[in-house]
Amino acid sequence: MLDIRKDFFANERDDNLNVIGKGIQRQDMPGHVTARSRFFDDHAFEGLLHLKVVRSPHHHARIRSIDVGAAERAPGVKRILRAADVPVNKNTLLSLINFGKDDEPTLAVDKVHYKGEPVVAVIAESEAAAMAARKLVRIDYETLPAVFDVEEALKPGAPVVNETYPHNYFEYHEKFDHQKLRFGDTEKAFGAADLVIEERYQTSPIEHAPTETNGSIAAPEQNNRFVVHSCAQGLFFSLGTAAKILDIESNRLHFIGGTVGGGFGGKVDSLTEPLAILGAMLTGRPVRYVLDREEEMLYGSPRGAERIYIKDGLMRDGRIVARHIRSYFDAGAYTRLSSYAAIKCTAHVPGPYWIPNVSSDICVAYTNRCPSTAMRGFGITAVDFALEVQMDKLAHAVNLDPMEFRILNAYRDNDMKAHRRVAKNTALIECVQVAAEKARWPLSESARRQSSLEGGGQGERGQIPATPIDQRGQIGRPETRNAPATQTLPAGTMRIPLTKQPELEGSRDARPVAPNVPRYEPARPMAQPAVQAPAPLVTTMPAAPPPQPGAPPPATPAPAAQPQHGAMRFSSVFGTRRR
User: Fold this and answer.
1) Is the pTM of the predicted complex or chain greater than 0.85?
2) DSSP code string of 246-297
């Protein structure tokens, strides 16, 4: 039974829990143990048809021709689906919240971008008939160069993986090539550190391997509607995705979820629902589309691989004074959820540790691999692994106990975090103390006396440090940071004041101006100390020029269009509430 430590934070936390630590029966347990739980595949339909997909055998290739004549004449075949049959044959999941561009076809059109990409769908009276007809489809390919390494994919001259993002990286707000965080002056701090340690960490793709593979059954209902029995983890995501791809009103789709036979994040991409519904629309009969075990393992979306570089500046007494993280998410051939993972990763840097100078550059790169997706804690899990291994290495470098090293550098309440938020309800110190106690790991008396409630927010721990910016008041690239550093602000400062509304400007000298993306004006004297640094992104019109003598009064500008991205909806990096 879980040991609930009520002695910690008794004055600010209610530990009278009614579920955690108690033997509560799950609501679905009786159905599971008696085999009465109904999964999507337990629904029987008269006249059920079966759909199977012809997949690309190449990682990257141009489609020269497709011959489905023999497959159409095969016994039991009712319909062959090709790209032209899909009403809206381009999608990305996060486009439902206006984040990112549609980049993935439901069925490949003129190229395939990863091994296993769907090209043709066969609908037949039985699974055996569909699988037999699938072998009769003839596709002529011209193989193309492929790239499988994230850093190689970002080099000039690398094969273009995803034509929607021709530089092989996801573009945030249609102009930024990565997620950036700057807090303090890391370069200066590295120069003053006693030790500088840099390490490289790499994780591999992981298949979720659910007992129940991805699948769905779609069937016509009355009033030109369709019922869909699905094992999707995000049922409304799947409904919205299907409605968009099929170009129909969402109220024509009746999605029924229920028991999911294992998901872990791997059933959010709607791999089967759109084609199953399209098959039902075109045949007028129920259609079942289920990935077999081989398809699930090879072509079901895995957790994406990540490569992480961590550079730390360390003092001999064990204090970390600077940390820079450079990370690459391998999205595979299409975006899916990788762009969101990079935002979550940025929001988690530098881990649960107070470090006065922090910077990070988190990039999403496209490769000719199977597109990756969510898996429990995605965006956080890999960087947490890297950070904690790094902490062990740092502790060893200064000859400190790894538990006490973490206590020394842990956040305390009221510390200023790297995202310019005040730390609250911190508990790492107490967690380490309890873990050491349970493991019978010896801690010094000083370490045992430490508390997350004490010592935080004092002096520089409660301030936003000076952060180098350029002449335009932006963080900018290193070669442009030639303006005076920003001033410090006290703990509790939630917003960085501006002298006026943001102006619009492109992000790179060689690129055109992107509409509705703000930048902040160059610094200028103010009555009160202030910081010129990124604030919550809002869309405004550019500042109007001063009126000329004798000129008519300027017309009132129309309200600016809302930005076509969704980062504001779910990112703690931008300091906005989740909604």
Assistant:
1) no
2) HT--GGGEEEE----S--TTTTSS-SSHHHHHHHHHHHSS-EEEE--HHHHH
Q: What is the DSSP string of 128-175?
A: HHHHHHHTT-EEEEEE------HHHHTSTTPPPS-TTSTTSB--BTTT
CB atoms within 10 A of CB 375: 23
Structure tokens at 410: 């842990």
> Given the DSSP bridges, would you call strands 287-290 and 503-504 parallel, antiparallel or unpaired?
unpaired
User: Do strands 320-332 and 306-314 pair parallel, antiparallel, or not at all (unpaired)?
Assistant: antiparallel
The 3-state DSSP class for residue 455 equals coil
Q: Which has the closest alpha carbon to 365: 165, 200, 150? A: 150
User: Are the C-beta atoms of 168 and 149 separated by less than 8 Å?
Assistant: no
Tokens 């001063």, residue located: 546
Three-state SS at 202: strand
Q: How far apart are CA 563 and CA 461, in angstroms?
A: 35
pLDDT confidence of 490, banded at 50, 70, 90? Answer: very low
CB contact set of 559 (below 8 Å; sequence gap of 6+): 541
Bridge-partner residues for 120, per DSSP?
54
Could you write out the three-class secondary structure of 30-53? HHHHCCCCCCHHHCCCCCCEEEEE
User: Tokens 């779910």 sit at which residue?
Assistant: 570
| Cα 216 from Cα 291, distance rounded (Å) | 9
Do the Cβ atoms of 268 and 232 come closer than 8 Å?
A: yes
Mean pLDDT, rounded, for 411-433 = 95
What's the CA gap between 393 and 385, in Å, rounded? 13
DSSP state of 105: -
**Location of structure tokens 């990409």:** 117
Q: How far apart are CA 158 and CA 152, in angstroms?
A: 7
Concatenated DSSP letters of 284-336:
SS-EEEE--HHHHHHHSPPBPPEEEEEEEEE-TTS-EEEEEEEEEEEEETS-T
DSSP 176: B
pLDDT, greater one: 567 or 298 = 298
Partnered with residue 364 across adjacent β-strands are 329
Query: In 3-state terms, what secondary structure has residue 66?
Result: strand
Neighbours of 202 (CB within 10 A): 12
Q: What is the pLDDT of residues 192-219, one digit of tens each?
A: 999 999 999 999 999 999 999 999 999 9
**pLDDT-derived band at 3, boundaries 50, 70, 90:** low
d(C-alpha 56, C-alpha 83), whole Å: 14
Residue 305 to residues 114, 238, 324, 354, Cα–Cα distance (Å): 15, 25, 20, 28
Residue 464: helix, strand or coil by DSSP?
strand
Residue listed under structure tokens 């200064």: 398
Helices 338-348 and 381-397, packing angle to 10 deg: 30
Distance, CA of 184 to CA of 205 (rounded, Å): 34
* Phi, psi dihedrals of residue 91, rounded to the nearest 5°: -160, 160
Asked if 565 and 98 count as a contact pair (C-beta separation under 8 A), the reply is yes
Type of residue numbered 220: P
